[in-house]
């Protein structure tokens, strides 16, 4: 009787093995580094105020205006240990490569926010790595590092007057 119960249990397990079949494999790799720059105290929450511009500056698709510098300041870095850069995280404020206007009070129409690296080249927020985004990279030559970026208005069509607001999260990464 015990043998029969054991046989039935084994048969049930073997019969269910197809439930555990797989169609593919995902290989995951990563690296944990001892490079530990920290965002400088007091600059963790940056506010970038774009200048007021007229709709004439953004009267057709793909026009830009109001490029404004902002700097992510890092401290307590290990000098001579590679490069550091910001990775702009995916989120619900990103559409394609830019930030959508999330203003809920008299929002400007047909306007998004575009981020640029320190060479004034667009950062592609749709990419899944900082280097693919064309983010600014800086060598860690000292205990403090500054990463310069720009934000600007981007017209998706002729802009209409109104408020522009958006946000994006970032993570400091190393290469």
From TrEMBL:
GO terms for cellular component: pilus. Keywords: Fimbrium, Signal. Residues 1-21 form the signal peptide. The keyword Signal applies. Coiled coil: none annotated. PROSITE patterns: PROKAR_LIPOPROTEIN (PS51257). GO terms for biological process: cell adhesion involved in single-species biofilm formation. It is found in: Fimbrium. InterPro entries: Adhesion_dom_fimbrial_sf, Adhesion_dom_sf, Bact_Fimbrial_Adh_Pro, FimA-like. Its main location: other. It comes from the Bacteria. The keyword Signal applies. Belongs to the fimbrial protein family. This is Fimbrial protein. It comes from Advenella kashmirensis (strain DSM 17095 / LMG 22695 / WT001).
């Amino acid at each position: 009787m015990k043998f029969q119960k054991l046989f039935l249990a084994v048969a049930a397990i073997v019969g269910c093995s197809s439930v555990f079949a797989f169609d593919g494999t995902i290989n995951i790799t990563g690296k944990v580094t001892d490079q530990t720059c920290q965002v400088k105290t007091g600059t963790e929450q940056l506010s970038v105020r774009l200048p007021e511009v007229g709709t004439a500056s953004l009267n057709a698709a793909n026009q830009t205006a109001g490029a404004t510098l902002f700097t992510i300041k890092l401290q307590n870095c290990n000098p001579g240990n590679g490069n550091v850069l910001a990775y702009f995280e995916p989120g619900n404020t990103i559409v394609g490569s830019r930030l959508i206007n999330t203003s809920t009070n008299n929002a400007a129409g047909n306007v998004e926010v575009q981020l640029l690296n320190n060479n004034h080249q667009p950062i592609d927020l749709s990419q899944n790595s900082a280097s693919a985004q064309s983010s600014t990279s800086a060598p860690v030559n000292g205990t403090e590092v500054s990463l310069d970026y720009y934000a600007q208005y981007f017209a998706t069509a002729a802009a209409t007057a109104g408020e522009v607001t958006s946000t994006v999260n970032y993570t400091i990464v190393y290469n």
